[in-house]
Amino acid sequence: MGNLCACLATQPVKKKPIKRLPNPPPQSNTSNRWTRIRSSRKEKLDDALLQEQALAAAILFQQHQQNGSLPFDRSASLRYPNSSSKKSSNALPRSSSSRARSLTDPLLQPHQLVNQDVKLDDLETNHFVLVHGGGFGAWCWYKTIALLEEVGFKVTAIDLTGSGIHSSDANSVTSLSQYVKPLTDFLENLPEGNKVILVGHDFGGACISYAMELFPHKVSKAIFIAAAMLKNGQSTLEMFSQQATSDDLMRQAQIFLYANGNNQPPTAIDLDKSMLKDLLFNQSPAKDVALASVSMRPIPFAPVLEKLSLSDLKYGSVRRFYIEASEDNAIPITVQERMTKESPPEQVLRLKGADHSPFFSKPQALHKLLVEISKISST
């Protein structure tokens, strides 16, 4: 051991005179500089996306600390200076731009969007209520929340029972009314005379339909985004069964949970994490897929089975708009088109290049459509 220590002991070193070398060739500097610039640009792109994820995490944590299981309602956000822009047309396009966009591109800042001329005082309501789909939570709307708030809209994103940061277990939800209670409670407590724009994604479409039947006088417009827009007497399970085949991605990804025992009906449906990207996020940025993979929760089974009771007098009195996602693998475009033909809304819009989660894959294009729909008057 002593010999080993002796070998490792520091030995005095004689300093040699430093020989000055001539400046390196200019092309070497140029190459190194270009490498640094490219590296810096990549770091900035990564930083922008990391900031988005950090913002989402911070919002969720703050909301959880302050409100527990109350609706996810941001009242403050980062502010950017508005820039002047040409007034956009009130006519809604059938399709958004299909220009290819790198999945690593940073989110455009709100002041770069083209619809900053919104006159909120001229709208019937400036309040959006966002309702997530099965397995998702209020967290999935973080880009949409930021973009809408920057324009000046009020935004409330709801965590349905057993979803997001709601404290209930999805396996304990036994009815659609129980599942949708955070939304119906919110609408019930909305002051008389106030109206909102309901936005539903995926199974959230059935949820906002249920709420429209109960509170039609509090809903200005309803927007279905790649969502279940059902007819009276139809269940979400029936809608999904229209597309079911042996090679259907949704069928392959489903994992049934039996909290009451294997000899009892399923209590919830989970999704195979290894199939999430192909099923729900095939056009979405990798960081959003990662966020979803650690945030999604099981879907209560009983509400999916429940048939909706919808009347022309109540549900039918609310103006409906449908936004199709052209690259949707969960609710294929053919199923979306069938729903809009069987129960026609006021307008049908399509987001080209959007997967089942346009709030991740096409956040700016989705934002633009939401704002344009809010500006459509009743005359």
UniProtKB/TrEMBL annotation:
InterPro entries associated with the record: AB_hydrolase_1 (IPR000073), AB_hydrolase_fold (IPR029058), MES/HNL (IPR045889)
Domain of life: Eukaryota
Keywords: Hydrolase
Biological process (GO), any one: jasmonic acid metabolic process
MF (Gene Ontology): methyl indole-3-acetate esterase activity; methyl jasmonate esterase activity; methyl salicylate esterase activity
Pfam families hit by this protein: Abhydrolase_6
Compositional bias annotation for Low complexity: 77-101
The keyword Hydrolase is annotated on this UniProt entry: yes
Region Disordered, annotated ranges: 16-38, 72-106
Domain AB hydrolase-1 as annotated: residue spans: 128-366
Keyword GTP-binding set for record: no
PANTHER family found in the cross-reference section: METHYLESTERASE 11, CHLOROPLASTIC-RELATED, METHYLESTERASE FAMILY MEMBER
Record's protein name: PREDICTED: putative methylesterase
Organism, as annotated: Prunus dulcis
